Amino acid sequence: LNEGKVGVALYYYDCTLNTIEEELFIPYTKSYEMLSVEIDNLAYISSRNRLYVFLDGGVYTINITARESEIMQASISETGFFSSDDESIIAWQTGNSVVDFTQIQLFKLNSMTPYTIPSGAGEVVIPLGFMDNDVIYGAARVADVTTDYTGKTIIPMYSVRIQDQNGNTLKDYHQDGVYVLGIEKSDNLLILSRATRDPDSGELLPIEDDQIVNNKTQTSLKNKLSSVVTEKTETT
Q1: What is the DSSP letter of 157?
Q2: What contacts 48, CB < 8 A, 6 or more positions away?
Q3: pLDDT more than 70, % of the chain
Q4: Distance between CA 114 and CA 106 in Å, rounded?
Q5: What does the DSSP 8-state code read for residue 216?
Q6: pLDDT in tens, 37-65
Q7: What's the confidence (pLDDT) of residue 220?
Q8: Which DSSP string do the residues of 173-210 spell out, in sequence order?
Q9: Residue 145: enclosing H or E segment and its boundaries?
Q10: Residues 165-176: b if buried by 16+ CB within 10 A, e if exposed
Q11: CB 123 within 8 A of CB 142
Q12: What is the chain's percent helix, strand, coil content, to nearest 5?
C-alpha cells in the first residue's frame, strides 16, 4: 500500500499467528537520508502505548490505539535535542539565542513527567547528551560567550554535570581557569575538549583533553544458544 513512499511505519507482529499488521504510517515529504537522521534521534513506544518520534524539528506523540497524534514540542534545534540510551527520556534546549538558554527541558516518556534544569543568574545551560539515562549538560557564564573569526558562537562551559532522573547531581566537573568547549561520548567515557584563557589577550587556547569515566556496571542481556542431540529429535 505504501510501496515507494517515504515515511515512518509501525507494525505489530503476532507470534502466535505469525502475522504482521500495519498499525500506522506517517508520510514524510523530505529525503530518506534526512528521515533516517531524525528517526535516529527518537523513535520510542512508551508503556502507555504511545509512539514518540522526532520529525521536522519537533517531537510528535501518536496514540497508537486511538490513531491520534499531536505535537509535544515544535521548533527544536536538532543539535539541541538528545534522547537517553533507551530513548525513554528526552531533553532539548529552550530558547532561540544563547542568552535565552536559561533552562533545559526534559521529559520522561513512560510516566509523561516533564521537568526542567534551570541556569544560575547570569548563566546559560547547554544539553550535551546522556550517559545511560543520566543527562549530561554544561553551565556557562553569559559574559564568557564569544564568537570566533568565522562568526561561530563559542560557549566556554566552566562546569559539566551529570544528573540522574530524580534531579540528583552525580558528577560536577570543573577546574579553575579551565573551560570545556565540547564533549565526545565513547563507550563508557566522556572525552572533554578543553581550553584555557590567555591572560594577556583573553583568547581561548586549547589544552589536552580530559575524561569522565562511567562507573556504572553495564548489564548485558543476551540470549544464549545451546544444543542437545537425542535419537528422537536429533539436534535440538
Answers
A1: B
A2: 110, 112
A3: 91
A4: 6
A5: S
A6: 999 999 999 999 999 999 988 999 999 98
A7: 46
A8: E--TTEEEEEEEEETTEEEEEEEEE-TTT--EEEEEEE
A9: none
A10: beeeeebebeee
A11: yes
A12: 10, 50, 40
Name the helix (H) or strand (E) containing 234.
strand 234-235
CA contacts within 13 A on the Cβ side of 61: 17
Query: Model-level pTM?
Result: 0.85
The 10s digit of each residue's pLDDT in 187-230 is 789 999 999 999 998 899 999 999 999 876 444 455 666 676 66
Residue 2 banded pLDDT, cuts 50, 70, 90: confident
Q: How far apart are CA 180 and CA 195, in angstroms?
A: 6
User: Closest Cα to residue 193, out of 201, 205, 202?
Assistant: 205
